[in-house]
Amino acid sequence: MKNRITTLFNIQYPIIQAGMIWCSGWQLASAVSNAGGLGIIGAGSMYPAVLKEHIQKCKASTRNPFAVNLPLLYPNIKEHIDTIIEEKVTIVFTSAGNPATWTKHLKDHGIIVVHVIANTKFALKAETAGVDAIVAEGFEAGGHNGREETTTLCLIPIIKDAVKIPVIAAGGIGDGRAMMACFALGAEAVQIGSRFVTSFESSGHINFKNTILKTKEGDTLLAMKNLTPVRLIKNKFYAEIAAAEARGASAEEIKEILGRARAKKGMFEGDLEEGELEIGQVSASISELMPASEIVAEIWNDFIKTKQQIAAINAD
Question: What homologous superfamily is domain 4-203+286-315 in, according to CATH?
């Protein structure tokens, strides 16, 4: 498929693997890129030296484009940006911060910049900052989420009508049917996280992956809305957060409960009770672990099949 996104990134399929903390290392990013999508290294959980290692290994494992996801609130942001420039990464997805802060600097070094948003205000702010495209992420998504709780179905057309740059849909997308729906709403690509967490190449712990396969509707809920909204699988840690929020706990108290390295403990180390288990609502429809290349192929083939089915209905 040729459109503004596949041309911008020089990729075969408009399928982008989200840069998820603790799950998106060089193995996953290179596997997705080799399959014709765009793989992303999630820098938010990496020290600067670790990010450099992952970028170098990814370059050695694929000749195709890949990106780095860069949370702008990361404490070592300048070191990460210096590493990205030094290693000649060509695409950066920024999130969790003001896009005006680093977009020009990155673009001055020839880097394509995409910013993740969850509302119109920040979509327009990102466009004004000069980003090349935006990811519009709906309420269904795992990880960091928008406070407005706008669903993907509502968000994509709103953002599409508000900006001129290409829109990438995210949140609740796990197969080609959902991808086709997003295209009908105006998206030119999809960014998928949860489905790729359950790939063989994901660096998420096997305990975490197996728990995702068992989730049903309602097993994930948005939490920490007064701090940084995040969608979590219900467990002991989630219950502590939910109880604190129910009694009106302050952001400081929530931070104290959160402590340090909860996400690492849950997603990377496999502690299913004390760890933070971030995943999207689409986890309820994920039933098996697969190679990343097969996930890309299945989504694309399902997208084409759905497109043909719609054409047949219209022909009738």
Answer: Aldolase class I (3.20.20.70)
